[in-house]
Amino acid sequence: MIFVPYFDIIKMVIKMKFSFVYTHEIINYLIKIERYKTALEYLYLPTRAKQKMNYEAKLKKTHFSTSIEGNVLSFNQVKRVIEQKEDINRVKAEIEVKNYWDALTFLEKSKQENKQIDLEFIFKLHDIVERKNGLKRIGFREPTPPGVLFAVYDVKTQNPEFIPPESKDIPLLMDNLLNWYKDNQKIPAVIKAAIMHYGFVSIHPFGDGNGRTARLLATYILMLEDYDYKGFNSFEEYYMYDLDGYYRALQMNLPPLFYDGRNNPPNLEIWIEYFLKILVLNAEKIYEAALKVSKSYSPSILDGLSKKDLVLIRYMLENNKEIIKNKELASLYGVTPRAISKWALEWVNKGILKPASGSQRITSYKLANQFRKIKISDLGFID
What we know:
By secondary structure, the chain is mostly helical.
C-alpha cells in the first residue's frame, strides 16, 4: 500500500458493460478451437495415458498460475508438494500451490455435480485459494484507511498500473458481472470465459488472490462446456512465458482508474483475441501430444473393455463389416433395438464405433479406425 491523497470518485451507480464485435481474428480462432476440440474427441487414448495427461496438465495449471503471482517454486518442487502426504510445516509458497491444486480439485467435483457459477461458488473457490489454517469465509476487500490507495503496481516503475473500484461498489459490480454471465449463455463458452476473466480481475473484489481466482473461473467455464480439451488444458503456462503480453492485453490501453472506462471497455476485442489465441496455441500442443500417444498404442487398447465390447469388435473384424446397422446388432446380442441404441451410444463414447448415418437419428455405425487395425488373434478367447 502507498499513502496518497485519495480523490472523490464519481458518485453514481457504476455498472459493467461488455460489448464486442466478432473480428476476423476472433472468428478464425473460434473455428480452430472447434476443429481441435472435435479432433481430440475422435482420438483414442488409453485410460492410463489420459490420466497421466490430466495429472500433468493439473500440475502445470498449479505451477504456472501461482508463478504468475510471484510463487518461486519450480515445477519439480510443486510436484513434490502435491505428492507429499503430510501437510505440516509448509512454507507460504508451498501452501499457495497446495491451495491451488485443491481449488482445481474443487472445480472437478463441481463439474460432476453440475454446479453453476454464483456468488457463493466464487466465495468458496476464493476461500480455497487463500486459506491458511483451515477453510474459512473471506469477504470482499474492506475500505482502505484515509489516504491509502488500493492499486496494482508496476513491478519495475512502482507506478499504479490499475486502480480497482472502491470497496463500496464491489457487491453491486459482482452482481452485475454474474447477471451478465447468466444472461449471455448463448455466447461461445470460450468468449464467456475470457470476459469473466477480465470482469473479475477488473473488479478485484478481494484483498488478494484475484488473479488466481479469475483464471480458475475461466477454467471452470471451459470445463462446464467441455472446452478444456478433455482436461488437458493449461493456458496458464503461456501467460507465464508472456507476462508482459498477458497484462498488456488485459490493460487494453485503458487508463489505470477503473472508473475511466474499464467498466465499459471500448476495445474488449483486444483481450478476447489474446485469450482465444492462447487457447488455440495450447490446443495445438495438446493435440500433437495426444496424437503421438494415440499412434503409439498397442493392443493394450483392449484393456478395460467388456465382453460385450470385445464381441462387437470380433464380429465386425471376422465378417469384414464396413458398416453395421442397429437391427443386425440387436440380432447379434438378442436384445431389443432400444437396448442397442443405448449400447451404441456407449460404444461411440468409448471410441469403438463411429456414426455412419445422419446426425439426428443414427441407424448404422462403423468400427473406429484404431480397432480396425487390431488382429483377431489379439482379442484372445472370449467365453
